Amino acid sequence: MRFEDAALSLAAASAACGVSERTFRRWEADNRAPLAVLKLLRLLAGRLDSIDSKFSGFWISQGRIFNDQFPQEILAGDLRAANYVQQERDFLRTEIGKLSAQRAEKPAMIRIAYAG
Q1: pTM over 0.90
Q2: Percentage of residues in the chain having pLDDT higher than 70
Q3: pLDDT tens per residue across span 55-68
Q4: Rounded distance, CA 104 to CA 101, Å?
Q5: Alpha helices for 8-75 (secondary structure H)
Q6: 10 and 34 both lie in a single domain
């Protein structure tokens, strides 16, 4: 991966890696940059698979997370709200279960009332 792919200048890329521009140019010319440098450039380009292979196809751009199989971006607020949404879903499932049980009991109660 080249520093341009991460939208960096040569000066910014070499500074991020803690080396001189000359060293960075040599790595590029020889195509022998250290693995840590390649991972850093991928991360600076926003590619999350440099952190963990489970994030293959995910990238960050302008504070949003994208995936190549999901057209809508994910915002930081969406991640923060995920726990609340799951709790709300579980609560609603419980309420639906209670209402379904009440509805199932009503025909039996009506039959008892008419029988008496």
Answers
A1: no
A2: 91
A3: 999 999 888 999 98
A4: 5
A5: 10-17, 21-30, 35-44
A6: yes
CB distance 43 to 50 below 8 Å: yes
Strand 70-75 versus strand 64-67 pairing type: antiparallel
**61 and 114, same structural domain?**
no
Domain of 98 in residue numbering reads as 76-116
**Which residues make Cβ contacts (< 8 Å) with residue 22, sequence separation at least 6?**
none
Q: Is 76 helix (H, G, I), strand (E, B) or coil?
A: helix
CA distance 99 to 90: 14
The CA radius of gyration of the chain, in Å to the nearest whole number, is 28
CA atoms of 108 and 92, how far apart (whole Å): 25
